[in-house]
User: Fold these one by one.
Assistant:
Number 1:
Amino acid sequence: MDRRTLLQAAGALGLLPSAVPSTAEPLQRGDERVLRYALRTAETGFDPAQISDLYSMIVCDHLFEGLYEYDHLARPFKIKPCTAQALPEISDDFRSWTIRIKPGIHFQDDPAFGGSARELVAADYAYTLRRFYDPALKSPAQSALEEQGIVGLRELRDESLASRRPFDYDKPVAGLETPDRYTLRIRLREPRPRLLYTLTSLGAMAREVVERYGDQIMAHPVGTGPFRLQAWRRSSLITLVRNPGYRERFFDAEPAADDAEGQALLARFKGRRLPMLDRVELSVIEEAQPRWLSFLNKEHDFLFQLPLEFVRLAIPGGKLAPHLAKQHLRAYREAASDITLTVFNMDDPVVGGLQPAQVALRRAIGLGLNIRREITLARRGEAIPAQGAVVPGTYGYDPALRSEAGLYDPARARALLDTYGYTDRNGDGWRERPDGSPLVLRMLSQSDQTSRQLDELFKKDLDALGLRLELVVGQWAENLKATRNGRFMMWRVGSTANSPDGQDALERGFGGSVGKANLARFQLPAFDAVYRQMTALPDGPQRLALFGQANKLLLAYEPYRVHVHRMVTDIAQPWVIGYRKPLFWNGWWQFVDVLPRG
């Protein structure tokens, strides 16, 4: 596109309002640029090695930096260097990866560094990788990282577990070498063609900081990122400010040539120093109505994930309502790379296990759930039924797949229950277990309105099967902790992809990830063998066939009942410029501007 065409596109998209000059400098110097919005669920903390919830990861991805990052404007996705000088040098059939760090990048100032500026070096990434293997941290990401097979780290972890001694951060391992200050060399046991995705999400931490703050490290994040944590009131308010020591970095991106919106944003921002914002304030508002009203009342600049209760009011027919369009709001509606599912605890004596009767119970529950009604009533039409574990937009997803997961067949569900001895022996209207003992299903849930609506539908479906359901309501973070520790029977939860590879979704069935990504605690040697095989293969027909096998095993044993893939809508006030919904990543604050109101 020539400049005139770009500017015309920008105007049509509302990116260059008539009152806002298109320059490479802020509109009014000295005006603080603040982005305010609300999270729908409380965070857990800010140590990348110890978190797995979306809301904590959103914050961490702006505090810490990976070796690589996703291009803010490129669609489809593009990975480019962040703290690395270039893409990795790869050899030995994807077993040897060499990365060179950019000199002159510094961690934010912190007392842990003794008052001097601390440069980021290759050893920081080596240390960060080691932390995921420290048994004391019980890192949710360790099992996924272990599948990358860095030589020596598994043995170092096993040694610590066997001896019951602290993890040895100083013992050399053959798979992590730093031959000089700025070079990191990673050696793997097996070929791992997609290690680049891991390196993109690996935020460097400094050993001095971790050792200074110890058990309080979740509250003391110190990274090289564009923002730093200024204040934190747990489950209430998180305030981040521009990192004053952030290196000179300027807006650049590579949108597709035919991407008018992306090209317009590039024309507007190219050359602007990052981050453009001075401060970000995140409130935690779990109830949908006050979150929605805070945005409508302009107390918030951005609405992250439009509450389902207001879908028909805000985006009837999938388009922004006229009364909101008149206010120049902008809606960003896309099919999310996510999935919702019911998790069954495979260690639970009632719903767990691999015996035919236990499998039959889980499959009957699944067949008795009216997912279409869930989509229509509770999700206001903003979802599609899930047919398998892999999520849309990721490698391995098959949009043509049709499976039992998409069926609603209560008659078949009742027949399964009858066949395997789940019958009502005492005439009270509720089925008992095959041995005659009471059958009570207990499911963790939350108190927000959407959860309550989903619970009501779930219970109605199980009532129709003669299955008694009790709900145990708590906070999301508490439910996650209980689930990881195996202290639950059932839980309904959502999961969002954090890389372009669909194997991440299949990790929830991998035995090596029990208590981490594998919340169901499912262990099946046949599945593990398929999972390990696909890990080593490059993308192609052979690997895609393994995706099909893995999906079939999960559907057959049903440690999870998949529900839906959601449509997600974000809405921005007219003064928020440059937002583009991320696909597999969370970092975007540094690439947007918030203009002065008025």
Number 2:
Amino acid sequence: MSYRSGLRLPFGLAFPDLYQREGLVRIDAIFLDRLNAIDPALHDRLLNARMAPHALTPKQHSELIIEVGPHVDDFVGELFGIETELQELQERHNELAPIFAVKRKFVQRKAITGVSVEQATAIDGFAVGRELETFLQEPLTEMSFAKHVSRWLESESEHKEPLRLAAAYAAWATLSPQGKAKHRKGVLFKAPHKLDPLRLVPVESIKSANLDYFQFNPDHWRHREGFQLTDPGTDLTGALDQAHYCIKCHNQGKDSCSTGLKEKGGAFKATVFGVPLAGCPLEEKISEMNVLKQQGIPIGALAIVTIDNPMAAGTGHRICNDCMKSCIFQKQDPVDIPQVETRTLKDVLELPWGFEIYSLLTRWNPLNLARPLPKPATGYKVLVVGLGPAGFTLAHHLMNDGHTVMAVDGLKIEPLPKDISGVDPHGRRVPFKPLRDITEIYERLDERVMAGFGGVAEYGITVRWNKNFLKILRLLLERRGEFSMYGGVRFGGTLTIDTAFEMGFDHIALCAGAGRPTVIPMKNGLVSGVRQASDFLMALQLTGAAKFESLANLQVRMPIVVIGGGLTAIDTATESLAYYVVQVEKFLKRYELLAADRGE
């Protein structure tokens, strides 16, 4: 089989080796040899840990993968020939280090200590800033502030006056309304807020027409137009700010974000609403990820993520936050772990061959002590029913355990180009090319065709999350020779339990999820003008109603009353507001086209 490829791998490897177990075994052997040449003691510790991974204490396990992480960065950079680009990314991490050091040592521990909001507001921050610039001898930015303050702190007695001005400016910028407004987009002058679990959302009470209602302060409003991605997530600076904020409590065995916040007796603590604080359901090594991210080891940080969460493209920002709820910071803002995780993934994806690097780490991961490589073929064939988050995650782990997987889903699954997926429209395996630039496969969310893969992540979630990640998840599976999938298959109808076993399957895994909207048994619940919220969202997503070329019959009228306050209700409120405008514009455009062609 020949592969069209602009990718040239060293060590006598070829692109197909990245997707075949024999090639992965070779890659692992090369990595171990190079590690042995650099650090024989670490190499021996890694091999011993692989032979008995459960013999390590949690702290020993954490220390080992953190030590091996930088070697993974170096090796993968060499493997894909991206040493220069990887070094540039690492340097961007390191260039930002002064901001976080000064934030911790100077802004939080000195400048704002003992200063009230009233005192900070009384400072003329703009005048102080102009005076401070005479010492900086350059425009005042967060980076210039951090670099100069860091240097001045090395000899405080010689820089008393600039440090006095810097402290006054930092107090004003961190605590006063004007200062917060000026530095709203930065991280240096942001301090954690105390949490009130009964007032998590800062709203204002407004009275109108004898009714009390709540709204955000206009400073928090964000303009929403159409159905393009509404939240791109944080940048590298924001992610590193959170990684530095994390106190890395795996060292004390207190990494509750991963393992849950527990009472002395071992039971999970609960929120004031009675929700157990069980931490990450995958027990992802979050604190360890933050260590390597903070150190500027981007691929090593992602390798730590993929130990327990290889399908990380389907988690993180805008998807899950159980980790945040269980963060050791219970009385102030928790570490925004989902943002760090998603930025860690994006930073690698945005490298040349970034998708291939992420894809490789889901199959070969030297930091995964229990299963660094896919196991040899077992001969077992498993039918996975449903290709939502449960289905595609299970399919991945089954293949890494050596099984062959066929997956079916009730939704129609649209084919991808065969040179990307490795599967032609008839389901036959064909050569596929490596992806150098991840944006080659990205689409605008307001123009994207629903592809059917992803279950609830496809039809249930809105454009607050980047659905291009579904294509990434799909390619992680579809490119593997042990995997096949078929859409438009209703289990229990098109395919039954009996016919599945007659076809030779050894096991059936039911990952069907909800499969249909929840219908609430309420009187007149289906009369004209009333719609179940989940049904509205599914109709909006699956029919492509927001697209101009769509003829979907989905009509809404204002005013709209949404009953409920959960995530589905919030999504319904935001999406109906956005859709109403699109619906009116579609009507007007069609009227204008028809009038021009047929006359009014």
Number 3:
Amino acid sequence: MGTLSGISRVFRRIPGSNFVFSLAKRLVLRIVRFDLVVPLQQLGARVDAFPHNLAASVDQLRERVEASSREIQHLKRRNAVLEKIASYSLADSMDAAAQSPLITVILPTFNRAHCIGDAITSVTRQKFQNWELVIIDDGSTDGTTEKIAPYLSDRRIRFVQQSHSGHAAARNHGLRISQGSLIAYLDSDCIFFPDFLAAMASEFVNDSSLDFAYGALAFEQTNSYYGDILFEPFDRAKLLTQNHIDTNVIVHRRSLFEKHGGFDTKPSRLADWDIALQYTADKPGKAVSVLAAQYRIRDKMRVSDIVPHWPNYFLVARKWYPGPVQLPRVLYVMWQYPQLSETYIETEIRCMQRWGVHVEVWHDVDVVSPYPVSVTTHRGSLEEAIRLSKADLVHVHWLSIAIEQHQSLAASGLPVTVRLHGFEVTAHTLADLLGRSWAKGIYAFPHQLKLVNSSDARIREVNSVFDTAIFSPFIQKDPKLVVRTAATLASKDLPFFFKLAELLPDHRFVLAAVTCNAREDYAASIRDLHRSMNSKVELRFDVPRDEIAELVAEAGIYVHTLQRPGLENATPVGMPISIAEAMATGAYVLAADLPEFQDYVGDAGATYRDLEHAAELIALTANWSAQEWQEAWTRSVERAFRYHADELVLRGILDDWIALTAASRFPPVSGSLSA
């Protein structure tokens, strides 16, 4: 316990540091408890205890040892942070802080009468007293006015009410009426530590060039992601990928608001991340080693409890992508285009066009169900298309097309990237592609990477994506509406959907099918089967993409059907875009119980064994409460935007294209955000 004694001496130098010391003590005890000696000593004994699967048992123990090692390193880093905070002294800064101009603390609140008093008191007890507190009541209905009234005898406290508009709008109101040249923020369920404003005032007085600073955030209850305390050095590149600066620990000059504006009201969450990025766009912020605020949980009304994280992550991240100086011209090479069923390709192209990439397309065959496009398309020879498009790079969809056109691709002298799809990808075909020197980038679904034991840097994992321009969370779901969207291919097992509808007469079933090239006979057979079964399924053919988006948005349940393939050494499925689209709207998703679908759907739905099991899973939803539907909706939306939002996932491909063409035409781009 020598380590604990040493830390004790450091922490006890600072008056009023009991909280910090107890937090450090907690961390050090955890380090001792998780010391590697224990699992290492037990390793031999535990191996002897497993008569079966000995190798697997050893692997599990090794993983536990490695996890313990990671935990120790994590806790040591936290301990270093605490030592740094504990050694921060205000002794030399109080005189400087006394010269500081006014600090405005903006405190928005909504129905927090039960805890707002603690927040206000934490401001009045600051060692630094040259502050004003602006409380913005965002339409509370719980007696907040009466709770705040006794505090208004302090003339430094102002109370303003507005109709319910959200925390970002409330903070903006506070910014507009603020009188201080420095601004701080406090949530109504959190509290400041007494030294916070004095320390920050001193920093700004002593450094006239400083515009944005932040302190350390302590968690009342250990956070599953950050642990006990959040405090990291300022790193703009890291900040572009994730936030490490909470609103409650920020102080900035009011001039930043005057120059850049206030909080973006479009995201309903992560406003602190966006404002940190906005206010440090011109010059870096400063991490000040002071314990600033305590994050507390006093109810289930927190934004983080009721508002999805990942759709808002998407909204903020897309605003702050570093822009390349110039973008490459790309020729897409594919089997058929523009075919309504190939929506994954159109989604990718539209995203690239939004970023400013010049796209042209060469396709091998004509289509049955076309849609209008704005890109230039080519037929004839691929060599001619490459010449006419003046491409800097060729991007091929489908592995088989890349192998088919290998001579033209090799002769072009251009870098080539390939996007893999479903059943055509085997260990053999993937190895064949890896043997082609012109293939500079290969984008595979997660399960396809397992086909090859290769560390080839050209292969990267890229998920299926949905078009964020037309698919978005839709809360007004019809829990009785079951939808399937699919191409008219035998592999889609559309008769399964008809049979499922027969078992669930209380539900409405809609199949939106697309006629595929060279498959018109199968489309006709689907129509014939529909008539012969006198099916109640609403059958819609060749529906435009925007109408598909409206249909899926309304559906409470999405069912993916599949004729199970029997190809050896192959990935049986890709990652059907229709599942990602359905999740993006908040639909409850059902898919066949293949491992690939179990990983894809995750907690956004369930996988079914057979027809009867699928019917049973749907029937169970009829008894769900409104809360259960809300939770299912949130899980789907969160999963879709976390793993499948187009501008988060596809950015990695764009960054590759820029790097591949940089040597001959473009300067390198640093700090790119890859998903």
Number 4:
Amino acid sequence: MKIRALRAMVFLILPAALLLLAAVHSLPAQEQPAEARKHYASAKEFLKKGERDKAIAELQEAIRLAPEFVEAHHDYISQRTGFRTDPDKAAALVKEYEERLKERAGSATMHYLLGRAYASAGRNHDGVAQYRKSLELNAGYSWALMELGSEALKDDNRVQATEYFEQARLKAGENAPLLLRLAGRLSSVRAYESALAEARRALQIDPTQYEVYPILWKAQLGLSSASEEAQAEVIRNIAVLETEYPDDPRVLDAVMQGYRSFFDDEAAAAVRKRILALDPQYFARQAGAPRFMIVTAEGNRLEFSGPEVTRALDAAKLTDPREQIEVYRQIAEETRDENLRIYFLNPRLFNAYLKADDLESAERLAEQMEKVVDPILAARSSQGLAEAYLAKGTGLDRAQSYADKAVEAFRRELGRLESSESPGREILQAKRLLAASLHVQGRILIAKDRTEAAVPSLQESLQLLEAESVALDLGLAYEKLGSMNEAVEMLAMAVSFEGPRKQEARTALDRIYGDREKTVPVAILLEEAAAKRKKSAAESGSGERPVETSILDGKEAPDFKLASVKGDTTRLSGLRGNVVLLNFWATW
């Protein structure tokens, strides 16, 4: 009887223990064992110095002492995959976290972390499945909810993303890093009231979370529609931080971002110089440093960051393409990372050749790229060459050859994605690429006086993605062929966009509308065209987003005043007689 009773107790206790394991939220950093926190802090210091291997060793020790130390796992996953992920490293990391899950079966945290490992390997589908498994074990697990919200946002489902982020708030607890991320995600969907609340909570728990200040400022401005009072308060906060922490790069980083939010590039540049004077490698080491990521046609994710990437991105700001070419060539000679050269530098070098009108060098590089990169990147190069030859007005046969090659490659890619039930955002991107290449193909055919052959390309482009330039070019093609009803329909669609070619489209429409005005006034036609296009864009989610405008042609602009970053105020009426450029801050 005693043995039987003991067994019964064991069977009762085990399920309860498993339920407890599933329900417990991962502890925030400040509540992890002291020894684990010590190793984690040491890892952070090594990362600041750029000593990655030592940092990884410290993170491993912190995780050994506290297996569900989420923040340590985040840094560990980031550093293990590195800034340049290759398939072998990604596979090894996934295998490691699959083993960790076996050791802690039933842990919501470990399912979430395995999902992060999958995501780092470019296996987003598998990652989402793990996040959902995490929520089955712990319905309010904030980390998993945030990742699902981010996935929804990638699919342009802002409503669902907001719901996930708001759910994540419910059990976020007193975890400052979690609240920091959550505030940023809420701000990204314009849930400014919630973002502001979480940002303030994060600062209350840990005043050294300086990264939260730009999020907090954005939320304040967004919540108040950038009112004078909110602007003044944010400007005061920026000035206070800059004055009180003149030697802390992290604080100055937040200050720099604050200046940028007010478009004060001069002040932001000055702060950046101060940061680099304090720590020349600061930006190269930051998790938020410039990164470049591609997913190859084989599904391999390649991610790049560091000084070489920063130099290349800075070179992109140079106005002379010949100077850009020199910088890209120099970096390519210095780097030992073949993937960086092939996938990051060569496309930029190719574009610089196009800007410099050095099509011969661009073609040579495109031939090299086609041999070693995936077909989509090569197709982009073909389209670039097609557009370049079209712009020159010479070599149209060569332009058409490149355009045909791009169309074929993008069409194959779209078919592959649709047949494999890939995520909606990937299919949408493939449609955009094919639509753009078809538009170029149609324009080349028109330039070759093959207007009738151009129409099918332009029609297919417009079916894939409604765009102003395509509608206008198709309308002009119809006019040239004498198909006036079709021309009117396309030109009316083009006018419904608030784009750079609106006036050109309106002029063409007025030219051919003629007697139709007596039957259907052109104003009515345009209203119907705008309503039809907006409805189509809303249903497909793939059209160009219309810009609603209110034009006061010939009228005096309403007077208003704004606060500058220096704290003073200026009225628009006080600038009468001067040329004024208005650069408005916005929250979208």
